[in-house]
Amino acid sequence: MTKNAIESKSKMWNLWHGCHKLSAGCLHCYVYRGDSKRGIDSSVITKTKSFELPIQKKRNGEYKIPPGSMVYTCFTSDFFVEDADEWRVEAWEMMRIRSDLRFMMITKRIDRMQESLPKDWGNGYDNVTICCTVENQDRANYRLPIYRNVPIKQKIIICEPLLERIDLSSFDIGSWVEQVVVGGESGYDARPCNFDWIMELHDLCEAQNVSFWFKQTGARFIKDGKLYTINRRLQHSQARKAGINL
Question: Does 57 map to a domain?
Fold first, then answer.
């Protein structure tokens, strides 16, 4: 899947909200940051009013989400968080019904996926992309062997927030990964991201014919040994200016 495909006609579907911090990448979670400003406890997982959005219809009988849309799924939680087990069967059913949509989710809980699949999953739904986050080498070493072996039709590795150099050379990503997405950490307390780490991943993707997307610099960005503080509104555009997307 290319960056342009991901950014086509899209809709957000946050069917439940809240999560439990799990690993280093969760330290400065954007959901927790946003909720804290509104006095919301992010560790409490709640079903949202948007739960049935994919199958909701307008007065004229058409679906509110038009066919062909990309649906970003569960971006204020983790689709495989334990607290949502009772709702997930119905969520899968809505994705099955709306086979005319593309659903994309990102998880740090790929180790819970196998036990959380619908009975008719088989080798995966054609319209569902499940991305796996690896923010450091430790999580890459743990999650990627699991991710490689679970049945998913479209697989994308998300190295965001990229917290250190990650070596993916031993995972033969060219044989099973569609894309690698890389980005630094945002927020006032962001940990720095080094352009050298990004270029190493870029070069590996280029060598193995895997799509590569440098999504954002993050708030603290190191290039040529110099640390830059980058305003939030410029982090995506500065990444694009690097001109390294594949």
Answer: yes
Structural domain for 85, as ranges:
3-241
Rounded Cα gap, residues 213 and 144, in angstroms: 19
pLDDT for res 9: 83
**pLDDT (tens digit per residue) in 150-160:** 999 999 999 99
Domain count, the chain: 1
- Please name which of 170, 173, 161 lies closest in space to residue 197, comparing C-alpha atoms: 161
Does position 1 have pLDDT exceeding 60, yes or no?
A: no
60 is a domain residue: yes
Q: 44 in helix, strand or coil?
A: coil
Per-residue pLDDT of 18-60, as tens digits, reads: 999 999 999 999 999 999 999 999 999 999 999 999 999 999 9
CA distances from 165 to 62, 128, 136, 149, 205 (A): 47, 29, 7, 24, 15
Look at residues 147, 189, 160, 212 and name the one whose alpha carbon lies nearest to residue 6.
Answer: 212
* Least confident range of 1-5, 58-62, 108-112, 126-130: 1-5
Amino acid in the structure at residue 98: R
Decide if 246 is inside a domain: no
| Alpha-carbon gap, residue 105 to 233, rounded angstroms | 24
Alpha-carbon distance of 190 to 184, in angstroms, equals 8
List the CATH number of the domain containing 71.
3.20.20
